[in-house]
């Protein structure tokens, strides 16, 4: 509204300075300028509200993802703790040999499960934090809008990027991946032997 006040002040200054010569000047349309300025203010306010809503949704999604992962990890750790329990009793060892084998496997790999759980939690936390940060950047919104326009190219680029990222990650962490595969094989051998 400062622009409108400036324009009115300019008209008043012209009237005072020119007095009798102030004729044949076009009439200044205050209402049109006021409506234009109000529309621009409303547009800016709506854009800020959209950004605020996106940020709220992004934070809610991040919170939900983190809660689900923490709940899953808690369930896994509690299940492993329950599986380790039969190792305490020697009588159950003879009555339930498969349960004892699974219990032994869980006890031997407890720290591997804990480490994998920590990795899952950290990766989820970092991913959601990255997504929240990207939602606040104009570049991320521009990339998202571009992916709406060129859907096939965006899908191809994202897919190739994901494949390269997964491939590089598996290559860098090859010993850990092989260890996880070996642990999985050992677990399934428990059920194959009975």
Describe the structure.
The chain has eight helices and no strands. It is elongated and about 115 Å long.
Features:
194 residues, mainly alpha, 2 domains, 8 helices, 87% helix, 0% strand
Give a brief outline of the structure.
The chain has 8 helices and no strands. It is mainly α and 194 residues long. It folds into 2 domains: 2-136; 138-194, no CATH class.
Main sheet record? none
Helical proportion? Answer: over 70%
The SSE order reads HHHHHHHH
In terms of DSSP E residues, the strand content is: under 5%
Q: Give the low-pLDDT segments.
A: none
Give a count of the beta strands, DSSP E runs of length 2 or more: 0
Q: How many angstroms separate the termini?
A: 82 Å
Helix and strand layout, with pairings?
Blueprint: H1 2-18, H2 30-84, H3 90-95, H4 97-108, H5 110-135, H6 138-149, H7 151-172, H8 174-192
């Amino acid at each position: 509204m400062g622009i409108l006040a400036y324009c009115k002040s300019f008209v008043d200054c012209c009237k005072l300075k020119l007095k009798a010569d102030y004729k044949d000047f076009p009439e200044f349309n205050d209402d049109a300028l006021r409506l234009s300025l109000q529309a621009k203010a409303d547009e800016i306010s709506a854009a800020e509200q959209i950004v605020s809503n996106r940020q709220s949704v992004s934070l809610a999604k991040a919170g939900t993802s983190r809660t689900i992962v923490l709940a899953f990890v808690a369930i896994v750790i509690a299940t492993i703790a329950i599986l380790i329990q039969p190792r305490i009793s020697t009588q159950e060892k003879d009555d339930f040999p498969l349960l004892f084998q699974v219990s032994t496997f869980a006890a031997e790999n407890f720290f591997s499960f804990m480490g994998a759980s920590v990795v899952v939690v950290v990766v989820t936390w970092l991913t959601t934090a990255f997504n929240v940060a990207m939602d606040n950047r104009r570049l991320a919104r521009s990339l998202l809008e571009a992916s709406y326009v060129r859907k096939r190219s965006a899908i191809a680029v994202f897919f190739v990027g994901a494949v390269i990222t997964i491939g590089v990650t598996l290559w860098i962490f090859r010993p850990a991946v092989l260890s996880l595969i070996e642990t999985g094989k050992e677990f399934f051998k428990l059920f194959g032997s009975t």
